[in-house]
């Protein structure tokens, strides 16, 4: 049944997503309304006023669909049902209606590369046997070797181990992630039609857009060839990582050039098709791609005018606390997005990465750890928080759309001392603990120090670190100098001045020698805002004047910006 949802006012040209601040909610860790240890949709409803007061424009909800939860909901068994752990469709409708009253948009997570092994399609495929139409919905293949005992090719799962699992009847199925997440066959018209239907189901219930999981997946190279698992750059192409020393840690995510199962040109036909579906609806609906793709011009292909509307800017996320990498990420991202008429997105943390406050507290300023545990280097929280707050002011002042991960506004770190027996990320199990996994960034939020689960609810599904007590929302909301107050102030100023729709130019003080990263955002009304972050080791002189926003109350002293601090000034 179509739900009649009043929509928030659109921006002048109707494209609200070009400058929106979007807040990611990981439902199982946001707020627990019934005491079962998991967050839920009623819990989100109960905190919508908090999010409205913070100043965000839209919410992105990670999966809340029916799922056996082998990968925290990214293994979907029914795309049209709310998992009872999280509530009901009626709860979804109440939450969406209240969001509309508060003027907030809603982005729903979509998982099109794979389903759960408990999806009715996969169960039917297993039962039907080799050669059946049911198996054509997935990537089933005969094995190699004299008796088919070897996998069809040498592909590896992103979560570790082989990317193929054999059934008792002898056939193998592909799963680029966990064995409970079989890959769909996007050469099958039934798959295309099913996802058109899923899109319309949630659009009819008031979704304003979709975050597309593994958007660079879906289509595989013809013939499913073996791969040496190395990224081969095409002549003339380069990425920001070429400037880094070999020992620097970078994502071990298969990137664009050379991978036979990511970033194949055929994915773009899927998104052109979905673009046409979204165009059937009023209200300027949108899509944002989760696509770990390099180089930058390959990512820009996903946001051409007839495809996606946004793509996550992971170059910015992995740049770390490093002047050169941040500068290149900003410059390259703005250039490539402008070339296809798309806005740039900016993001520092999400549910798949170590929180930036913890990353910035490590010895290596551009480290991209695949999880942190008690045996590894422990982040310096005070250093990480200072840098994290400064980086947030850079993110929120750049033209385009900004994404916040739940708890960013509280300065939350990862939980780095989770016992192995409590970890639930399949990557931890599939790699035998070699990859720590993502549980540390998914720990339930602290709302009220001293209450059960620090206000999240009794018996949280993952334990919270001790530091969450002092970082709880009730210790920060309305408190001068708190991380929450800094974010709320920055979001208010960003909205009032229209920084998301401004234009970018480096400032004369932008200098590698001093480590000062500085630029000017000129708004549509002609307001010029100087933004500076000191990534160097000494105070950096800047124009005299009253700052609009400070990352710390002590950021500016004697006319200079202190190290690990940032500020915004309004220029004459």
From TrEMBL:
CDD domains this protein is in? AmyAc_OligoGlu_TS
Q: Which SUPFAM superfamilies match?
A: (Trans)glycosidases (SSF51445)
Signal peptide extent: none
Methyltransferase is among the record's keywords? no
**Glycosyl hydrolase family 13 catalytic domain mapped to chain residues:** 24-442
Q: Which UniProt keywords apply?
A: Hydrolase
TM region(s), chain numbering? none
* Molecular function terms from GO: hydrolase activity
Which family does this protein fall into? Belongs to the glycosyl hydrolase 13 family.
Listed name of the protein:
Glycoside hydrolase family 13 protein
Naturally occurring in which organism (per UniProt): Kocuria aegyptia
